[in-house]
Amino acid sequence: MTHAIVARQAGGPEVLEYTEAEPPVPGPGQLLVKVGATGVNFIDTYKRSGTYKVSYPFTPGSEAAGTVEAVGEGVTGFAVGSRVATAEGISCYADYALVDEDAALPVPKGLDVFTAAALPLQGVTAHYLMNSTFKVEPGHKVLLHAGAGGVGLLLIQLLKARGAEVITTVSTDEKEQLALDAGADHVLRYDGFAERVRDITSGAGVDVVYDGVGKDTFDGSLSALRVRGMLVLFGAASGPVPPFDPQRLNAAGSLFLTRPTMGHYLRDAVERRWRSDEVFAAAADGSLKVRIGARYPLGQAGQAHRDLEGRKTTGKVLLVP
Question: What is the pLDDT of residues 211-233, one digit of tens each?
Answer without folding.
Answer: 999 999 999 999 999 999 999 99
